[in-house]
Amino acid sequence: NKVLLATRNRKKLVELQRILDGALGAHRIALLGLDDVEQYAELPETGLTFGENALIKAREGCRQSGLPTIADDSGLAVDALNGMPGVFSARWSGQHGDDRANLQLVLDQIADVPDEQRAASFVCTVALVLPGGKEHLVDGRQSGRVLRAPRGDGGFGYDPIFLGDGQDRTNAELTPAEKDAISHRGKALRELAKLIAKVLPP
Length: 202
Ligand code: ITT
Prior knowledge:
The protein has a 6-stranded mixed beta sheet. The chain has helices at 10-24, 50-65, 99-109, 176-182, 184-199, and strands at residues 2-5, 30-32, 69-78, 119-129, 135-146, 162-164. It is α/β, with parallel strands linked by helices. The protein has one domain (2-199): Maf protein. It is globular and about 50 Å long. Inosine 5'-triphosphate (ITT) binds next to β3 and α3.
């Protein structure tokens, strides 16, 4: 029972795999990475919402592999930036996947914003596309605020500048298990695991 995980982001892949393996329990599926699909050609993520982009990636992965395919589209929505970087989180500074440059640009853009107006949320939407054409979307959100300087080396992306509500450590200072328990991705993937148990044969 093979399922493709369509992502090029290695750190995201590690999280997806870890959370899904934990959440699926006895309902075992073998997760394949994009490297297992010969010459996978990516489509541009032209969607204006996380859901549209997750579907673009999952549909293409499914079309090229013939396998049920999962894709994650995620990002940080900062209130003081009207929800940006949002779907542009991976390339906010202009360099796709340059986490340090991306988070520094956000810090610079809200440098003058007072603490009580620095609310932000991580959002994760996960698409599951089945070879028969059925499509499913689940999502998760983690609310918090953006700090003034990075803290911690764990996680990836904007984790070092994000303090989740009720936390005294940034997402980058949490252990992987602690992050998964409260993160946008953890919530979305635990929903996905329930869906997989219903729509995919064991
Ligand atoms: P794929 O499209 O190949 O999956 P990507 O990195 O381009 O990889 P996205 O377009 O979904 O993926 O961008 C997600 C970006 O949002 C990611 O690069 C981070 O900057 C940020 N992000 C997402 N989840 C995060 C998390 O758990 N912690 C910190 N930052 C996160």
